[in-house]
Amino acid sequence: MDRPARIALTGGGFRAGLHLDLLGRLPGRFEVTGVLARSAATAGALAARGLPVHRDLDGLLRAAPDVVVVSVPARVAPGLVRELDGRGVHAVTETPAAADLDGLRALWDAVGAHGRVQVAEQYLLFPHNAARAELVRRGAVGTPTSVQVSSTQLHHATSLVRGLLGTRWRGARVVATATTAPLADPITRAGWTGSAEPRPQTTTIATFDFGDGRSALYDFTETQTRNPLRARRLVVRGSAGELVDDRLVRLTGPTTVVPSTLERRWTGHHQDVQGHDLDHLSLDGEVLFRNPFPTSRLSDEDIAVATLLQRCAAWARDEGPPPYPLAEAAQDQLLSAAIERSLATGGPVATGEGPWARS
Length: 359
Prior knowledge:
Rossmann fold, Dihydrodipicolinate Reductase, domain 2, six-stranded parallel sheet, 30% helix, NAD(P)-bd_dom_sf, Gfo/Idh/MocA-like_OxRdtase_N, nucleotide binding, Gfo/Idh/MocA_Oxidoreductases
């Protein structure tokens, strides 16, 4: 981009705060044109941070942002998205795009055909996931046939499944079960709890049969996103190999099986004076992912979110493809809702085809 991505935000909650902190660390890449805060308390807190605060959309849009990030609860986000779409504004809404499937279908009916809405789904953009996806795209495991995800919940996990398997709009037969067992929970969003006492926590396991030999396994414990006592695991199996986290094994000839490992290059270790930062991820000397924000000292999640927002701004300017359209997120939510329905009914659930499948 020749100029910083111009981002406006709505809301002043937890997610909006994370976005604002991140954008403030990348001043040459992003410009916050304004924040919409409809409550006096939120407006005051944002103004205290030196941000341009507006109480209505007219004021927010006067600065002509590239995109508006809708960072409000899922129960109210669709109304704001519809309002922005009605003004011809490009919007990025948080996940999930609506509170339930009825709300999702109503949102699609209202704005889907216009193509002005993206969704803030960043898990495929995490550096390791992006490198793994690139390996799959290059045919390292042959034709991908199965994905196992044990790291994140519901629509985030199904986005990884669809992205790595390439199932697009294909429906699935979903079977889910849940068990409860004790697990310590030493860290929450607020930080260390100071307690090592286990408490009952639920683990959900679900299988997806997409037909045509493609399947997926979902395995998530309720605090797994932050809990250091549970690992994050990603497996991609294919016709000529298997990727397990960072370990790849593949067939390169009739009698030749080759193991390799994804390598992560950091700067700033030992006597490296460049400063602590992610440089790239590679396998067998081939770079699969290069940090697009070098010297910024960002976490993997920050890299993913910043990449998504930058691509959304480029898309809004007609300078790049849509990074994660509403249709993609709707399919993620359709599949994740099937997990919850299978748990509720105790039996298999078959997902149909949503109206976005024709987009």
